[in-house]
Design goal:
Shape: rod-shaped
């Protein structure tokens, strides 16, 4: 029954449905690439923040040593 209805559709409608499916597939790929790039960016930023925090802790430790030497 459903197959008979599909075979009776004009060819133009089937081609248009195919074009829409291809556009949806392309949009899905773009969205997935965007999500992946965002995740990679967040991982890199997290590593940078950790490095900066470590450097700040080292600077504070060095400042404390310098202050003790001044006394």
């Amino acid at each position: 029954m459903a197959i008979e209805e599909l075979t009776n559709l004009p060819i133009d409608i089937i081609f248009e449905m195919g074009k829409i499916a291809l556009w949806m597939q392309a949009l899905g790929i773009v969205i997935i690439l965007n999500i992946i790039s965002t995740i990679v960016f967040l991982i890199i930023e997290r590593k940078k923040r950790k490095t900066i925090k470590d450097i700040q802790e080292d600077v504070i430790r060095i400042e404390k040593k310098i202050d003790r030497l001044k006394k």
